[in-house]
Design brief:
CATH architecture: Alpha-Beta Barrel
Oligomer: single chain
Number of strands: 11
Largest sheet: 8 strands, parallel, barrel
Order of helices and strands: EHHEEEEHHEHEHHHHHEHHEHHHEHEH
Strand content: 5-15%
Number of domains: 1
Distance between the termini: 10 Å
CATH superfamily: Glycosidases
CATH class: Alpha Beta
Shape: globular
Number of helices: 17
CATH topology: TIM Barrel
């Protein structure tokens, strides 16, 4: 069974290679992942908050393991290596420029890889699939012409991520070049995890991407009816933004209503299939540049979000070594609240209780309804348990595995939250996946949580 932990570079810098790896190896960890950057403290004007604020909702988060003596701070990054410019010649996107931080701290990533292998741990690099330059989620983003768009042509006014269009050949060419470069720089790695290789469904608007010009061109190339899909998606978008009634929530907002809508609007089915085709094509092109000895693993949203994100586990499974399905349960009430607030704002006459009931049935995030009002759905504080049920977490992993066939689906559990709750969620992920667990991320793993992990691993041996 795999036991993996994502250790972002700032902890390698702060705690030291040997300290981190000895602690994890003693707990029974078999795999680690890190990223090809290094970090230093900054101020608010020049840096980004760590931990990330998640569109404002995650501002309650604090690190379990301090960085530079703080549990929240502003930071900036630099690549951990000197990019080989030949890989990026003629491309629209170029790697970040190395600087003095690269020269001083960059070698610690190679040392971490070497130290992990000395302890017989496998090592992955984690990069972003569609956020050039691709080292970390907060730094980078697409050019305007590669930004995903709504069916009316607008860029969503608020997004949590900075993903570009998966249909953009410029973005795909860049991530291929980055992959080649990293394999040259760190040839001894065992795998690459591509994070956010889908249309991340954090906001209601995210569900209606992507109708950019790159998407139009890709649809024509792949044989999908772009204009019919756009018109059908726009009609649905407009219905949700002003056309919802209490009667429609009672009769048409459940799973049966959604299936009936898809049956009568085949262009919507085409649109979902098109997004899945884009995600699969991304992994086809990544596998073209990654040798078979190197494992590929996407970090993926669980069902039912995967239907809208384009993550068709069965299709993607043909091209990857494993799929890491995220049980980032602190995000689930945040997503629920984002959707609910947007729908209530666009349809102010709705009965809020009916809306909450309908969303609860549709999204399947808890074992039963968490509360009657949207105010009951918030990003949990550091000492609050995550309001995710055992049954729904288990069913999401098992559903993804059923679709992925023989390709391993591994539960990707988040370290954020109180110790007891973390232990419970860890055990759920372990039991749900017959292949193992990954934990995101080391910065939320206090020594007490690492001890919980060690006891769980020891109990299974």
């Amino acid at each position: 069974m795999i036991v993996g932990v994502t250790v972002l570079p700032e902890y390698i810098q702060n705690e030291g290679v040997d300290s981190v790896l000895d602690r994890l190896a003693a707990a029974g960890v078999t795999h680690v992942a890190t990223s090809p950057y290094v970090m230093e403290p900054a101020d608010q004007a020049t840096g980004s908050r760590e931990p990330p604020v998640d569109a404002g909702a995650g501002g309650v988060r604090l690190l379990d393991r301090p960085l530079w003596g703080k549990r929240e701070l502003f930071v900036r990054t630099a690549p951990s290596f000197m990019p080989n410019v030949k890989h990026y010649a003629g491309l629209a996107y170029q790697p970040a420029t190395p600087n003095a931080l690269t020269a001083v701290e960059g070698g610690k990533i190679a040392a971490f890889i070497k130290g992990a292998h000395a302890r017989e741990l496998k090592v992955y690099l984690q990069v972003q699939a569609a956020i050039p330059p691709g080292y970390r989620v907060q730094f980078g983003g697409p050019k305007p012409e590669d930004t995903p768009r709504l069916p009316d042509g607008r860029v969503p006014p608020m997004r949590l991520d900075k993903n570009g269009s998966l249909a953009s050949p410029r973005i795909v060419a860049y991530v291929q070049a980055l992959t080649r470069d990293l394999l040259d720089q760190y040839p001894e790695i065992d795998g690459i995890r591509y994070d956010w290789p889908e249309y991340t469904p954090y906001m209601l608007d995210d569900l209606f991407l992507d109708f950019s010009e790159p998407a139009r061109a890709a649809a024509q190339r792949l044989g999908y009816p772009f204009e019919r899909m756009r018109v059908a998606a726009l009609k649905l978008y407009q219905h949700l933004h002003g056309g919802l009634t209490n009667k429609s929530l009672e009769q048409d907002f459940g799973r049966y209503g959604m299936m009936r809508m898809l049956m009568h609007e085949p262009a919507l089915v085409d649109w979902l299939r098109f997004k899945a085709a884009l995600v699969e094509e991304l992994f086809v092109k990544l596998r073209q540049v990654v040798p078979s000895r190197i494992e590929i693993a996407p970090g993926a949203f669980p069902p039912p979000f995967s239907l809208a994100s384009g993550m068709d586990y069965g299709k993607v499974a043909r091209h990857v070594s494993a799929i890491h399905v995220k049980l980032y349960t602190m995000h689930w009430p945040m997503i629920f609240r984002f959707y609910g607030d947007a729908l209530l704002k666009a349809n102010p006459k709705l009965d809020e209780r009916l809306l909450v009931k309908a969303l609860s049935a549709l999204l399947e995030l808890t074992d039963g309804q968490q509360g009657e009002m949207l105010a009951n759905y918030n990003y949990p504080e550091p000492d609050q348990p995550h309001p995710a049920g055992v049954n729904v977490q288990t069913s999401k992993i098992k559903q993804a595995q059923a679709e992925a066939g023989n390709t391993p689906v591994i539960a990707f559990v988040h370290g954020y939250g109180p110790v007891n709750d973390f232990g419970k969620r860890l055990e759920v992920g372990w039991k749900a996946s017959r292949h193992g667990i990954w934990i995101n991320r080391y910065g939320y793993l206090s020594n007490e949580k690492i001890a919980v992990l060690g006891r769980l691993v020891k109990a299974q041996v």
